[in-house]
Amino acid sequence: MEITFIERKTGKRCVEKVYGHKVLSLLYGDGFWNRLFSALLLPLLAHVPFFSHLYGFLQKRPRSARKVAPFIEAYGIDASEFVEDRFSSFNDFFIRRLKSEKRPIIADPRILATPADGRYLVYPQFDRFFVKGQEFSLTAFLSDSAMAHRFAEGAMAIVRLCPTDYHRFHFPCDGTPSKARLINGPLYSVNPMALRKKVAILSENKRMITEIETDLFGTIFYTEVGATSVGSIHQTYAPEKPVRKGDEKGYFEFGGSCLVLLFEKDRIVFDPDLVKNTQEGLETRINFGESLGRAFGS
Fold it and tell me: pTM to 2 decimals?
């Protein structure tokens, strides 16, 4: 399966170079052997944390630093953006910091900034969420029926971070965040190969939910979703204290991962290009700090 997306800066359709493509194809492909391997291996890989933790541990070993330079070359990553020029391990590279001037943050307070480098899907206001043609259960995702009712007619943005991406995530606007609430779960892949077969993965995987109270965008539910080989979701912010747009919220350790932002009804109008691309079944590749949408009525 070829994964295509729109590069926002150029407007061009691109084909994604998928890290671990062979393994993903084996586990999430449609053939007989794929289904067999999926039935045998997925429960172990997703439900037994040992495997993700072991892989994550190996990426922290000094020997893993030898993979950094070939990885940068193979995936065309711009090393001039990095704050550091040397890394003690592959995980150290994975959670790298970027120079602030390489990710300017849109200043207008009426505009919500993109919270991370990644591939974006946006779903404006409607009664039921459908992702990849499958219904997405807010109640299962939030593990709270009252909150699900509150956001039932709201809007949603999904941000998929690939292993090649910068893996720190940030606050999209000024506000006051709560303490993150952990919902434990398995660690399935969030790659489109996996989501097209079962979007409920987003409601099953380990995730952390933070409520952000804002002046212009109401209450935002900001969720980090773990995935295969993501052993840890680290929060670096101080709960219950005001934050500014662009402040770091946390980071994922090694692996692909995902953010989901939920908005109450009539709080955000997503940018037209993102809506159009999503309606056409295409993710939009965007860097952290760009425009995601405007406050409703502004």
Answer: 0.85
